[in-house]
Design goal:
Blueprint (H helix, E strand, L loop, with lengths): L2 E3 L5 E3 L3 E2 L5 H13 L4 E3 L7 H10 L8 E6 L6 H14 L7 E4 L6 H14 L5 E4 L3 H10 L6 E5 L7 H9 L3 E5 L13 H10 L3 H11 L3 E2 L6 H8 L8 H8 L14 H8 L4
Parallel strand pairs: 3-4, 4-5, 5-6, 6-7, 7-8, 8-9, 9-10
Antiparallel strand pairs: 1-2
Helix pairs in contact: 1-2, 3-4, 7-8
Length: 280
């Protein structure tokens, strides 16, 4: 496994295992499989409904806690200082942990400044090792960075070969925020796994389109958290550290960028109404 160092000195694996849309019943088995195959970073969220399963797996896996990196996220309905403070303690309890390695604000809605103050407080108390945000576009990220005491360490945004977030990445670099991808496979949209560019480049290294895409993001300075419920795919997804894409390969994949989301825009009022209406 390779690591990056966040702006506060905390080391984070460049590749982790995401549990979005993995049921609480299936999640424990999946996380145990992932850890058994060498994953050391697990990404969950309050809204996923599987923090308990992640905690169970971490407790049973046999890997020392200090070798693991746990991420969770505060949901919109827990926004604001008081609610966020309570929800953070609840996440800690569900994860059965003495500390959480990284906590993110899941969406840039509700009183996220209040939420961030609660996270800063927990960070200063030492039971959260790093704090950051998710789905913050450059305008909101710049605003937040300009007025908080503890600079966000990570911004997790939709990032894949079809939406490479080049401009957003530049601003993250400028403000010392680590770029992390959710949806590195674009959830299979646009025939992702059979994309001819990815497949052709992958052939050179005896790798799949998925492995090629993950390698591209890692070489672009992006942390990735691919998800699969199948052990064989977990093994393939972590097997991306024995080859390096050359400049020609990188340039070819860069041309796949459409600079548009394949999911939703946080600037779209209907999206905002949908997200803020999810009270979970």
């Amino acid at each position: 496994m390779e690591y990056i160092t966040l702006n506060n000195g905390v080391r984070m694996p460049v590749l982790g295992y995401g549990v979005y849309q993995v049921s609480n019943e299936e999640c424990e088995r999946c996380v145990l499989d992932a850890i058994g195959e060498g994953y050391r970073s697990i990404d969950t969220a309050q809204a996923y409904g599987n923090e308990e399963a992640v905690g169970n797996a971490v407790r049973k896996c046999g890997v020392p806690r200090e070798e693991l990196f746990l991420t969770t996220k505060v949901w919109i309905s827990n926004g604001g200082y008081e609610k966020a403070k309570i929800s953070l303690k609840e996440s800690l309890r569900k994860l059965q942990a003495e500390y959480i390695d990284l906590v993110l604000i899941h969406q840039p809605f509700n009183d996220y400044y209040g939420t961030y103050r609660a996270m800063e407080e927990a960070y200063k108390e030492g039971w959260i090792r790093a704090i950051g945000v998710s789905n913050f576009y450059p305008d909101r990220l710049i605003d937040l960075c300009s007025f908080v005491e503890v600079k966000p360490a990570v911004n997790q945004v939709e990032t894949h070969v079809f939406q490479q977030q080049v401009q957003a990445h530049k601003y993250m670099e400028k403000y010392g925020v680590q770029h992390e991808s959710w949806g590195p496979f674009a959830e299979g949209r646009k025939d992702f796994f059979t994309n001819p560019v990815l497949m052709e480049i992958g052939k050179k290294y005896d790798k799949s389109a998925a492995q090629t895409a993950l390698r591209f993001l890692i070489q672009s300075g992006v942390v990735v958290i691919p998800k699969s419920t199948h052990k064989i795919r977990m093994i393939q997804n972590i097997d991306v550290f024995d080859f390096v894409l050359d400049e020609e390969d990188m340039a070819a994949i860069q041309k796949l960028d459409t600079k548009e989301s394949l999911f939703f825009s946080h600037y779209d009022p209907s999206t905002v109404e949908m997200l803020t209406g999810l009270h979970r």
